[in-house]
Request: fold
Amino acid sequence: MRRLKIGIDGRAWTSPAAGVRRYMAGLMPAMLELDEPIELIALGGSKDALPRGVAWVAEPSHPPTNAGWSVVGLPWAAAGAGVDLIHAPAYTAPLTARVPTVLTIHDVSYERHPEWYPYRRDWLRRAFYRRSARTAAHVVTDSRFSAAEITAAYGIPADRITVAPLGVSQEFVPNKAGTRPELPPGVHPTFLLHVGDLHERRNLGIVVRSLIQARRQEPSLAPLSLVLAGVDRGAATELRSLAAAASMPDLVVCLGAVREDCLIGLYREAAALVYPSRYEGFGLPVLEAMACGTPVIASRAAAIPEVLGDAGILLDPDDASGWTRALMTVLRNGDLRSRLRAAGLARATEFTWPRTARLTLEAYRRVAA
Reply:
């Protein structure tokens, strides 16, 4: 089998989106470890951000915008590097290039629910994403749910889409016996955890309201708080206001973005991960929490059931009383927490970056052929 030269959009390694950076950090080293006849070449971006084994070419001259990079700079870099194909790992791809493009689309929430993105120029982003998807030779996505959504949004047939579920990095494991991580200032046991940027589709108000009810019904839960690890995209003020109106200003703790070692410590110490999102293309925090032995309470929505399976508690995202009951049951019942911990650890072993890499490589070969 001849050696395959794959050009990767090098800017993805330093993407402002944490999920894209995690995708690159998990997928690309696993791709190299497959010991297959391939060569990975980062097209542009920061050379210092690359893992060992990935080659690099500098960015050619191009218009100084992200669109200018995708439309002009990236295909020129690919031509100069002599690659067999381009992998664009995050939504945007060259509209014209001498070689085919494999495009990763993690979800299409912006297209299916534009009401969640009320930004003045969001229509332009949606148009560029749509054109990128339809121009790509093949699409890779994270779940069966997202594959169906991509077909519905863009009319791309199923045979042009590969589902390659994400993996979980080896650092995400439970505490070693007798060890306890140091928690960030302002985080006190016992707490529930949410990981991910704070915006409307994450539906976090239902957890805040449910926690308020739980604390009122069960005085022993008075110290319980909701810790939010993620960049605020406009939702934090409302969540704090809900807590303040209930005379519980300590209920919501906003940490913003956190380092990975801090994030792992939060997973390990949380009483449960709460994930009430209405729409996810995968839901990587659900997988990371399971790998750390943390019980998961999540929405029965979008791709989340594909990831969680029967290893956690799935609820209607709008069932306020159900969320309250679930939170109280998990916090009170040590046997249930132990069962969820064991089920989550077993479930997490099914999701590995080598599997993601293998499925993605199959997509590369299909396009190159």
Summary: The chain is about 40% helix and 15% strand. The chain has a mean pLDDT of 95.
